Amino acid sequence: MHPVIKAQCQQFKINESLHHMSESDVFEAYTIYSVISGQLGHGIDPLQVHLKGNEFGLDGAAVIIQGNLVTDTDEATAALQDINNPEVEFVFFQSKTGSSYDYGDIGKLFDAVDEFFDDELYGESDQLDDLINVKDLIYRKAVAKKNPGLRIYYATSGLYKNPARIEKLIEDRTGRLRDRSIFDKDSIVVEMLGADKLQTFYRSASRSAQVKIEFPRQVPLPKNEKVEQGYIGFIDASQLVKMVEVTDNDGVVIDINRYIFFDNVRDYNENSPLNKRISDTIDEHQGADFVFRNNGVTVIAKSIHRTADEFRIEDYQIVNGCQTTNILFNNRGNLKDVSVPFRLIGTTDDEFIASIIIGTNSQNKINEEQFLALLPFVKNIEEYCQSIDDQLKIFIERRENQYQREQIERARIMQLPVLMKAISATLLNQPNRSARDYKKIFKENSGVIFQEESDVRLYHAVAYLYYRLEFLWRNQKIENALKIYRFYILWAVYQTITKGVDVLKVRKPKDVASIAKSIVDTAADEEKFKAVVKDVSKKLTKLAAQLSSENREKLRDSIRADTFFLRVREMLFPK
Prior knowledge:
Number of helices: 22
Helix content: 40-55%
Distance between the termini: 60 Å
Oligomer: single chain
Radius of gyration: 25 Å
Largest sheet: 6 strands, mixed
Shape: globular
Strand content: 15-25%
Structural class: alpha/beta
């Protein structure tokens, strides 16, 4: 394997706690991480995309809706709620640790993609079956205005030199995919990746951004105790492009760093008529008008160092102006006389950052998770879960990808939607609704959940319980097939440990602390925890077998029903 790629894979293996994985499996997951987080700019767990078995022609498969990974129809349904014209992408991976690009293996990758959309891969694995069901749901409900995009990646640790036979194969097979008329024809991407691109993408995903820019036409913003430095003015477009470009070892620009836009609420839409008109004004040499017509760009940086008119900014995000910046990057060879309204804000106050993001994007609908991230109690949970012993730490991600550049065990990062689902299943006693209806459950229980007087120890215990359950699957200590019962298992284990007590009604802090400790202690004892999980799983599968469901999707519908939950509760915890 290429020595730099090998070193990056080793670091990735440590970061992701993949000690049980073979070198080839680590490379497959590393490729997925580098592409999705580094090139595409989505903060997605690569192990949820990585296929665990010997699925035909594929090492990874993902369905991404509005920038979020969905792994089953529950998650897809939740992601599509209240969205009229969703952005959907199918992404497929095949990776080889060697350096050659094999014609047969590349053809096999295209065959697997064809078979996925023809339902011929059904039965290869539960993970693929769930994605095929998601695909069917999308084509039933989400393609009225726009077809999904498609991305196919074949990666090795070598260097791709555009061999004629393989280029012809790619052209022919891409044409066949385009002729299906089920994809956005302008959004079909096939890439042969090698050591050069993988290195760049990985660094983009895993390192904080740093750049020096010239910003002479600025004035300081008013003093604010939450802001270390702040400036407003206008900047040469070429300086803005410097902030987002990705270069190779020779300094040649090869891509835009999409990670810079992680905290922007909207991704770039190259097909937007407005964006095309703006781009046309640059082509028509109207660049001098740009500064008068554009709302500008807002950048938040954790660190700003100023020397005269030169600014060195570190750990920065473009939180407003994604469309503008992408347009300028795409026209970077034609930016004479183009200036952009520009705000640069230096702050490390996460709540203030969140308020800026929401304020500068006030024209967009704000989802529940963004509002929850501003609650004082959620901040309390985040701080508490980081402050305890290393073995018990959980990193609650209040803002998307806030831990992306930190050297911590990625499996311990818990996004707010995941925490909400875990709480819905355990504290709120609704495992049958947790996957799909967690937002509604939270609205129904807003008076008792995430209150300032709530005990952070209990919420940490639930988060840790979920992490330990996922740990068993992650390390192949329990069967993957049981994942369909994930929230039932979580609920049943929680009920077993707490002996059915409604903890939200327990008023004495010492009693809550005792219950939380018993949850954590059981989850931390792997053998004891695994025994409880296997016991409740055995009973669940026995009851589910009585449903005689024809396939996983019908089984999923059955176990989501209130009647099934009542039967489970009666069987596991009879009164």
